[in-house]
């Protein structure tokens, strides 16, 4: 079993249960055709036996010779529009992957897709929460520096912000970093 991921750089095996499955995947990648690539391309489960390979995928048939695989079953994984993928099962027997296996693989990939989508959503939510925490921390530091500039120079909040922003531009440093350094320098001076 393996998982094929299609990226801008071409197909790669994202996970595999062993060397044999990886070799079958690589043979398809080299040939530019085969059941796993077709499953991704057409968005449907693809089932084949070794005897069909020369007619369906001649370049892959040449690559696959001697790999010991007689049955192929690949299902598209649609969990992310940016990363087309397929789940691939290989058998040493031509009758090793039957119609029932197709139905079971479709059920399995549906569950896998849901789990992968949920995992992505969770990771995105964690990332957004971290970014929001960082933004709030940045804002607090900038507001503190702005308050000090207001008090020292007797200017409005907008004018203090403009002064900090201008210095940030002049020194080519992020406003948050400038404000942080400003506060550290003040604390060190005391």
TrEMBL record:
<dbReference type="GO" id="GO:0003723">
    <property type="term" value="F:RNA binding"/>
</dbReference>
<feature type="domain" description="ANTAR">
    <location>
        <begin position="122"/>
        <end position="183"/>
    </location>
</feature>
<keyword id="KW-0804">Transcription</keyword>
<dbReference type="Pfam" id="PF03861">
    <property type="entry name" value="ANTAR"/>
</dbReference>
<dbReference type="InterPro" id="IPR029016">
    <property type="entry name" value="GAF-like_dom_sf"/>
</dbReference>
<dbReference type="Pfam" id="PF13185">
    <property type="entry name" value="GAF_2"/>
</dbReference>
<keyword id="KW-0805">Transcription regulation</keyword>
<protein>
    <submittedName>
        <fullName>ANTAR domain-containing protein</fullName>
    </submittedName>
</protein>
<dbReference type="InterPro" id="IPR003018">
    <property type="entry name" value="GAF"/>
</dbReference>
<dbReference type="InterPro" id="IPR005561">
    <property type="entry name" value="ANTAR"/>
</dbReference>
<dbReference type="InterPro" id="IPR036388">
    <property type="entry name" value="WH-like_DNA-bd_sf"/>
</dbReference>
